[in-house]
């Protein structure tokens, strides 16, 4: 399946998480905010590049992107969330009716990209083996604020065999536009996480004997910042229901 | 000499290009624009990351940066340029009197950082051997515009022995925050450069037999964009007279 075929399926009404769709092509987080908030979000993303790596930012009202020139950002994701004053007000399949002419769309890198690279190197992904979503946690680290945007760092956690942690770190460090190197390894208390079995987002994932928890900055961080910062209006993708671009994953890997 | 000692010398009145000062510490380009233009410049930098890699952006009126917490951006560079409507109006040693409370300061990565890494790998730097400034050229490639900001890509060129071009590419590609991999190798016509012996900025540099010209995106690009885009007011560093940060070069190298 090509990215174009995947986007057409979503445009035609298919609702599905995008993990495994159009493999080898970069998927992106979407956050669209009014122009009045765009500087704050752009600066927030710049100051917190590990959780918020920017792949593209549109001009106000523009609903296309060089990342996939034929795509329409209002219709080509499988599911959208609409936010008012930091609260989720609805989820829908087509955002055309609610898209505003002053919206600036941010497309941010997604860890699906480095997961492909980890798997290709033989590193087991426990959440995939267990058919679950990755575990995500709100940490006690604050992102560096920017204007009205502020919020905590959110991390995803993957249990990795101890003798593969260095390899996983090195592979992901060479993909800085999709969260880059881990932010922490080992003791969850180092990030203020009380209990790995009760993640704040996603599913609990079981570690195998000899696994070590490895934590990466997570693309849910900007959604957590929306909830904390309460812009009057925003449209995002629904978690796991990403925008599929035409850009090969390899583009974001440093040789 | 530490970065702090270098900055004190400049604050006390020393005017000197900063090449070779506080070796091993990252130097940065400075561009400060009014808040009204900051979104356009931030988006321009984001859309043109190779020539404009952002290391930090201040809040309006703030004259310090986490890159060097004790520094004052108005006094601690050896020389400043003041711009009005895209024209250079003066050069001065201390920008305190002209600094405005609405100025947002951008600190951008500088190729001095990857030059240290090239030299450490045994790659000869002809301009250094010849005691000259690096050659810089305005290309026929336009940067991707952002709001009112637009301008051509400017590149620096270094003659590199043919059998070391791959090594130079790989080393610099692992430093994406200081311009990253070359944008072009070989024929200057591929970038619309008519004559390598007449650079638009810096000095002509002589190639040795067997050298190939290698072109990197250059931090002069945003100054060229100032000249093209004509914001009402801006303060920048003088070419070669950079801001010396407390951040080790290694911070920007991907292992």
TrEMBL record, chains A, B:
Keywords of the record: Lyase
Record-stated family: Belongs to the D-glutamate cyclase family.
Signal sequence, renumbered to the chain: none
Natural source organism: Kibdelosporangium aridum
GO molecular function, one term: lyase activity
Broadest EC class assigned to this enzyme: lyase
Pfam families: D-Glu_cyclase
Source species taxonomy: Bacteria, Bacillati, Actinomycetota, Actinomycetes, Pseudonocardiales
Annotated protein name in UniProt: Putative hydro-lyase SAMN05661093_02457
InterPro entries: D-Glu_cyclase, Putative_hydro-lyase, UPF0317
PANTHER family found in the cross-reference section: D-GLUTAMATE CYCLASE, MITOCHONDRIAL
EC number of the protein: 4.2.1.-
Source species, domain of life: Bacteria
Keyword Lyase: yes
NCBIfam families, per database record: PRK05463.1
